[in-house]
Write a structure and sequence with these properties.
Length: 214
């Protein structure tokens, strides 16, 4: 039993479950992109200082053992989006199929990254969803559309909390994630839904049409 989303319309989806016995969270996220998709956790709806989980498509010629994608834990520092290795994160899967990037990870609710930042997902955070292209060498470059950002904070470990997503928007002035062109497209037609299914929470971010079924 679980929620299903019509992948032809939704731009992003995230599903997560918290294991209270081990203080771990399993989080799967996906999006339509042939470059990268990411979910970030922010204290202020801006992009600097955020914890970022990113799913990146492998470049052409990645080899026979490639699953089509890889996961990276990253960190937004000012205008730069940097790799940020952290203990307590296990990659369950990473794939790129039919234009959909998907990654699943299990991580401690609290992790400490290589920039000496602490991110506790039992605290309240805004969630940001973004996508963008990759370079010829497979490195992520600046997002191609403005991130979609939740309108209010919520704790991923509190399954009774529900929050809605606002329109895709420009980050606050002076914030960003890496270099690249400022000629980007925003959306004023965003919608989302959060549903509780057993011990799982699911957030579907559809910038146009949202279809959910059982």
């Amino acid at each position: 039993m679980g929620l299903r989303v019509h992948s032809g319309f939704c731009d992003y989806a995230a599903e997560w479950s918290v294991n209270e016995d081990t203080d771990e969270i399993t989080l799967a996220f996906r999006g339509r992109s042939n470059g990268w998709v990411a979910v970030g956790f922010s204290g202020d709806q801006a992009m600097a200082g955020d914890d970022v989980l990113m799913c990146i498509a492998d470049p052409p010629g990645a080899g026979a053992n490639s699953t089509g994608a890889r996961f990276e834990h990253r960190y937004n520092y000012g205008y730069s989006n940097l790799p940020a290795e952290a203990e307590g994160i296990t990659v369950n899967s990473a794939s790129f199929t039919d234009g959909i990037l998907q990654c699943s990870v299990t991580r401690d609710l609290t992790v400490f990254n290589s920039s000496h930042m602490t991110f506790d997902l039992s605290s309240d955070w805004f969630m940001l969803f973004a996508q963008g292209p990759i370079s010829s060498s497979g490195q992520p470059v600046r997002h191609s559309v403005y991130p979609a950002i939740t309108d209010m904070k919520a704790s991923l470990s509190s399954l009774d909390e529900v929050f809605v997503l606002g329109e895709s928007r420009r980050p606050s002035p002076g914030q960003g994630d890496g270099g690249g062109s400022e000629d980007e497209t925003g959306s004023d037609n965003g919608s989302s839904a959060i549903q509780l299914t057993g011990h799982w929470m699911a957030l579907f971010v559809c910038l146009h049409v949202l279809l959910i079924g059982w």
